[in-house]
Amino acid sequence: MKIALAADHAGYELKEAIKDFLTAYKVIDFGTHSTESMDYPDTGFKAAEAVAKGDCEKGILICGSGLGMSIVANKVKGIRATLCNSAKLARLSRQHNDANILVLQGRFISKKQAGDIISVWLSTEFDGGRHIQRIEKIKKYEE
Ligand code: RB5
After folding, report:
1. Atom 9 of ligand 1 has which residue's CA nearest to it?
2. Nearest to 65 by CA among 5, 14, 118
3. Which of 31, 61, 104, 138 is the most exposed place for a label (fewest CB within 10 A)?
4. pTM of the predicted model as reported, rounded to 2 decimal places
5. Number of domains comprising the chain
6. Is-catalytic flag, 131?
7. Whether 63 is catalytic
């Protein structure tokens, strides 16, 4: 599986750290590549578009709060990005929302927490069933 990865300066350190949790995957790193201040839309849109186009199956985006990257990713048609700060939310975001982008908070969670969240998020399948019609309504609204 190919995973699109992107961060701003506030997510850079966590982005580098989580590569250790992703060694079993092909990771496409859309930047940023340092802690120098930059604008999260510049990397976030590139990664989200890679997922929307199918170049990557899933994406992980990180900014300081997770809020800016969430806004950016959810502007891209076909993206269901969910900000998760616990493994429980990560599981639900896959089971109920079929999230294709995970957003993390560079300034609010530890590397260990990020690893736990990512591990659950990548190993949890969409439940389908009653949730399908809800996803379909989102897709219809996008059209
Ligand atoms: C950067 O200071 C910060 O605003 C950004 O990382 C993010 O939290 C925005 O939503």
Report:
1. 68
2. 14
3. 138
4. 0.98
5. 1
6. no
7. yes
